[in-house]
């Protein structure tokens, strides 16, 4: 969370996706439940998987990744309902949008 110092919930989950060569792949996920979880203080942890390979069997390169995003879900105690938000972490710029050639 960007601005709140504290945001209490009973449940939090997230799933991180990467769109690699037009295929949407879940690359990292986690969830936590319990009383009084401060979402503003929770960390997402680290990815401990192997290297992602392209169709040719080579490690993927950044130009093969078009989007990286997270889906975050939590229980909003004040509204008494589950909330869901998509957070875009990376969107591949179009060539004319970048200063690198």
Descriptive overview:
With 101 residues, this protein is mainly β. It is 0% helix and 51% strand. The chain has strands at 8-20, 23-38, 65-76, 81-91. It has a 4-stranded antiparallel beta sheet, with no helix packed on it. A hairpin with a 4-residue loop joins strand 3 (65-76) and strand 4 (81-91). The protein starts with 7 loop residues before the first strand and ends in a 10-residue tail after the last strand.
> Mind describing the biggest β-sheet?
4 strands, antiparallel
Structural class: mainly beta
How far do the termini sit from each other?
Answer: 34 Å
Oligomer: single chain
How many E-type strands? 4
Shape type: elongated
Q: Determine the number of helices (DSSP H or I, runs of at least 4 residues).
A: 0
Supply Rg: 17 Å
Strand content: over 45%
Report the helical percentage.
under 10%
Q: What is the average of the pLDDT values?
A: 84
Main sheet: strand order: 2-1-3-4
Question: Which stretches are poorly predicted, pLDDT < 50 over at least 5 residues?
Answer: none
The ordered string of helix (H) and strand (E) elements is EEEE
């Amino acid at each position: 969370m960007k601005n709140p110092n504290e945001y209490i919930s009973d449940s939090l989950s997230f799933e991180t996706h990467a769109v690699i060569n037009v295929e949407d792949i879940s690359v990292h996920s986690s969830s936590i439940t319990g009383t009084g979880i401060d979402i503003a203080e929770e960390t997402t942890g680290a990815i401990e998987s192997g290297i992602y390979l392209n169709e040719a069997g080579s490690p993927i390169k950044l130009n093969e990744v078009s989007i990286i995003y997270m889906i975050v879900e939590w229980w909003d105690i004040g509204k008494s309902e589950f909330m869901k938000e998509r957070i875009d972490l990376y969107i591949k710029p179009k060539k004319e949008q970048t200063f690198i050639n």
